[in-house]
Design a protein that fits this description.
The protein is mainly alpha-helical. Helix content is 57%, strand content 0%. The protein has eleven helices and no strands. The longest helix has 19 residues, at 81-99.
Length: 209
C-alpha cells in the first residue's frame, strides 16, 4: 500500500478514535505493569485490578515486597496470573537494580527488562515517553493485514511493514487507532465492514469470512 493511502487511513481514524490507551495509569511504572497484565485480557478488567493493586503497590520498590504467589492473588482475574506475576516482579527488580528505580525511557533498555517483550516496551516508550514506536498486538496484527497496511505472518514483520508505510510521526497514534478499529468494527470473527469508516480503503472489504 502506498504511503498516501496509509495516511488517508490514519487521518480518517483520527477523527473517530482517541490517541491514547484505554488503560488507566499515573506513572510509567503503572503503565508498564498494566500493559503486562493486558495480555489476553480486556483493558476494562485490567483497570479494575490495578485500581486495587496500585493503592498499595504502585512502585517497583513496593511491588518486590510481594511474592509471585501474593501478587497472583491480586491479578488472578487477568488470566495467566502466574506468568504475569513473575514478569512484573522480575521487571521491578531490574528497574531497581539496573536503572535506579526508574523505568528506562528508551527502547533498548525497556526491552532489556526481564519479562518485558517487544510489544510492552513499545507501548511504554510511545505512551509514557512520547517516543515513536508501533506496538503490534492481536488487534493491530489483524487489522493492519486486513487493510493492506501490512502483509505479514508474524507480529515482528507486521511492525516493520507498518513502520515503512506510516510516517514516523504517526506511529504511536496509529497503534491506538488500529486497536480501537479492531475492537469496534474489524473484529476477529464478524467484522462490520459495512459500518467501518475505512472500508473503502480496505483490501479485504466485504470478503472477510
Amino acid at each position: 500500500m502506498e504511503k498516501e493511502k496509509a495516511a488517508r487511513i490514519v487521518e480518517t481514524l483520527a477523527g473517530i478514535f482517541a490517541d491514547k490507551p484505554a488503560l488507566t495509569f499515573r506513572t510509567p511504572y503503572e503503565l508498564l505493569v498494566a500493559v503486562i497484565l493486558s495480555a489476553q485480557c480486556t483493558d476494562e478488567r485490567v483497570n479494575k485490578v490495578t485500581k486495587v493493586l496500585f493503592e498499595k503497590y504502585d512502585t517497583p520498590e513496593k511491588m518486590i515486597m510481594l511474592t509471585p504467589q501474593e501478587l497472583g492473588r491480586y491479578i488472578f482475574s487477568c488470566g495467566l496470573y502466574k506468568t504475569k506475576a513473575e514478569h512484573i516482579i522480575s521487571a521491578s527488580n531490574d528497574i531497581i537494580n539496573k536503572f535506579g528505580g526508574k523505568v528506562p525511557d528508551n527502547l533498548e533498555d525497556l526491552r532489556s527488562l526481564a519479562g518485558v517483550g517487544r510489544k510492552t516496551a513499545n507501548v511504554v516508550y510511545s505512551v509514557a515517553f512520547h517516543g515513536n514506536a508501533i506496538a503490534v498486538d492481536t488487534h493491530v496484527f489483524r487489522v493492519s493485514n486486513r487493510l493492506g497496511l501490512a502483509n505479514a505472518k508474524d507480529v515482528l514483520n507486521t511492525e516493520k511493514q507498518l513502520m515503512a508505510v506510516i510516517d514516523e510521526k504517526d506511529w504511536s497514534r496509529s497503534h491506538h487507532y488500529l486497536i480501537y478499529l479492531g475492537r469496534s468494527f474489524c473484529k476477529s470473527q464478524s467484522p462490520d465492514c459495512k459500518e467501518c469508516p475505512v472500508s473503502a480503503l480496505c483490501e479485504k472489504n466485504f470478503r472477510v469470512k
